[in-house]
Design brief:
Blueprint lengths: L7 H19 L4 E2 L1 H8 L3 H9 L11 E2 H11 L6 E6 L3 H7 L3 H4 L2 E8 L8 E2 L2 E5 L3 H8 L3 E4 L3 H13 L4 E4 L12 E4 L2 H13 L2
Parallel strand pairs: 3-4, 3-7, 4-6, 7-8, 8-9
Antiparallel strand pairs: 1-2, 5-6
Amino acid sequence: MDSINISQAVIKRLPRYYRYLGELKDEGIERISSRELSELMHVTASQIRADLNHFGGFGQQGYGYKVRNLYDEIAKILGLDKSHKLVVIGAGHLGQALSNYVNFERRGFHILGIFDRDPKLVGKKIRDVYVAPMEELEDFIRCNDIDIAVLTIPKTSAVEVAKTLVDCNIRAIWNFAHVDLAVPDDVIVENVHLSESLMTLSYNLSRM
């Protein structure tokens, strides 16, 4: 599989396939055709087949897909068969909400540290993790082999913190700050702009 040739549009559809297949698996359904899956997901059967063919196909002509097998294969493609160590930087409302989301652990994403500059938040316990001061961030990342950092801080601080993360050899940043980060090519950034998503919803609502 040459991931360079796979579009981001295909990659962004994989978690949705994974979610639907997980629901089918939990319902005890063992096999499903691309047509049946397309009816559930409102994606064309040809699109599903084309997406999955990037990774080997996994189906059989006239038989369809084994739900459990396809679910497990997509998990491997998404890297969910591995464990990931995270830190959350920013212990405000959003940082606390993300830290309390139990499904991250079920998917192999383990939040080991939470950091903030606000002395009122330092020492606060969020689930089983105490909020630590920012001064301890670099040593913590290096000592715990952290590979993903979650940024839930104001954009005025995000650029500076991102530079620190790069210096600590963080490989991936999940960025909720309202700023585009300039990082080396070997650091992956996934930007989540909540207000932009809400504005897209508003646009579509105003044209109904």
